[in-house]
């Protein structure tokens, strides 16, 4: 009688095991993709669910769960053979022609792009039209790029710096603005004033979460109230600033009366810090706790002022 170590499992259970392992660690997912064709088909959607395409000289690899870092990088040997000033092509862009047109549109849900050229931006955005989250850092917004952005119609979160021109003419009627619920913007530029942001916010009718990383310019006292007036559905206004945080903590600045305004210290890290260390859950806990305390205090006051039965 022949004894074998092979364990036959139902296909559904086998797939569930591989998908769970791939979701735990990206390095494991990459190894599993070469086990067998069927396993590759199971784990690749997980690998490509989160994609980072950054054209940077030196970027360290990351191993967060369900995160596939695809960044432009050149080895020393390759750089010695490359012509001077020739732009490098990020690996993800080289991968696009190797998959069916619908592959990335169906599987990429979170996309982060930084310091890319116009052709590369158009290529990536045109391939990943099904994303729900977009991070944008140090890219040039041009008419062809804006046209590609207008093809995004299921975006609910947008994180940008000032290279993303909110007043760009071609974006006035962009479909993504109507579905956006979370908007993160970094204003670290002393030439930028907070007040011009107010009219733009009126184009985000579904916005519930707004995060603003302050630069050198202090907004007017009424700025928070103007934001809430422009965004009637807003649940949290998160202000990220070291100076505001320490002033509020030390009592030099009074906390805003609206319980939905949260001031936190700017997260430490590179441009991906807002994604790797997401502050929204913490901000939501703070607002929820405040509202609970306010409701309990209101109920206690009502009970204390209620007429007592004789």
Descriptive report:
With about 300 residues, the protein is α/β, with parallel strands linked by helices. It folds into three domains: about 10-45, no CATH class; about 50-75 and about 85-155, no CATH class; about 180-300. It contains 14 helices and nine strands. Strands 2-1-3-4-5-6-7-8-9 form a nine-stranded parallel β-sheet, with helices on both faces. Helix 1 crosses helix 2 (about 25-30). The radius of gyration is 24 Å and the shape is globular. The N and C termini lie far apart (about 90 Å). Mean pLDDT is about 80; it is low at about 55-85.
Spell out the blueprint of helices and strands.
Layout: H1 11-24, H2 26-32, H3 37-47, E1 50-54, E2 68-69, H4 76-81, H5 91-95, H6 101-107, E3 110-114, H7 118-127, E4 133-137, H8 143-149, E5 157-160, H9 175-179, E6 182-186, H10 197-201, E7 209-213, H11 223-230, E8 236-240, H12 242-250, E9 261-264, H13 273-276, H14 280-305
Parallel strand pairs: 1-2, 1-3, 3-4, 4-5, 5-6, 6-7, 7-8, 8-9
Helix pairs in contact: 1-2, 1-3, 2-3, 7-8
Order of helices and strands: HHHEEHHHEHEHEHEHEHEHEHH
| Physical arrangement of strands within the biggest beta sheet | 2-1-3-4-5-6-7-8-9
Structural class call reads: alpha/beta
What's the number of structural domains? 3
Please give the count of helices.
14
How would you state the average pLDDT, rounded?
80
| First-to-last CA distance | 91 Å
Question: Could you estimate the helical fraction of the residues in percent?
Answer: 40-55%
- In terms of DSSP E residues, the strand content is 5-15%
Largest sheet entry: 9 strands, parallel
Q: Count the E strands.
A: 9
Spatial shape: globular
């Amino acid at each position: 009688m022949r004894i074998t170590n092979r364990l036959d499992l139902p296909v559904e259970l086998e797939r569930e095991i591989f998908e769970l392992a791939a979701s735990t660690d990206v390095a494991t997912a990459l190894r599993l993709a070469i086990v067998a064709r069927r396993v590759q088909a199971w784990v690749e959607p997980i690998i490509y669910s989160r994609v980072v395409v950054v054209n940077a000289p030196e970027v360290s690899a990351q191993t967060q769960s369900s995160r596939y870092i695809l960044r432009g990088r050149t080895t020393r040997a390759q750089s010695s053979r490359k012509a001077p000033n020739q732009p490098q092509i990020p690996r993800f862009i080289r991968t696009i022609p190797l998959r069916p047109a619908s592959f990335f549109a169906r599987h990429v849900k979170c996309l982060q792009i930084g310091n890319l050229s116009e052709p590369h931006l158009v290529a990536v955005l045109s391939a990943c039209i099904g994303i729900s989250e977009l991070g944008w850092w140090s890219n040039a917004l041009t008419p062809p790029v804006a046209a590609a952005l207008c093809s995004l119609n299921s975006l609910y979160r947008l994180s940008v710096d000032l290279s993303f021109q909110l007043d760009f003419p071609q974006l006035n009627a962009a479909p993504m603005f109507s579905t956006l619920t979370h908007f993160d913007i970094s204003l670290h530029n002393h030439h930028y004033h907070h007040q011009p942001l107010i009219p733009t916010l009126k184009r985000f009718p579904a916005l519930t979460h707004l995060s603003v990383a302050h630069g050198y310019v202090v907004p007017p006292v009424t700025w928070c109230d103007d934001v809430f007036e422009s965004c009637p559905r807003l649940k949290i206004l998160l202000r990220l600033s070291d100076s505001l945080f320490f002033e509020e903590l030390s009592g030099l600045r009074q906390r805003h009366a609206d319980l939905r305004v949260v001031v936190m210290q700017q997260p430490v890290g590179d441009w991906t810090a807002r994604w790797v260390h997401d502050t929204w859950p913490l901000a939501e806990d703070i607002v929820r706790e405040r509202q609970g305390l306010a409701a309990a205090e209101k109920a206690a006051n009502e009970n204390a002022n209620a007429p007592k039965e004789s």
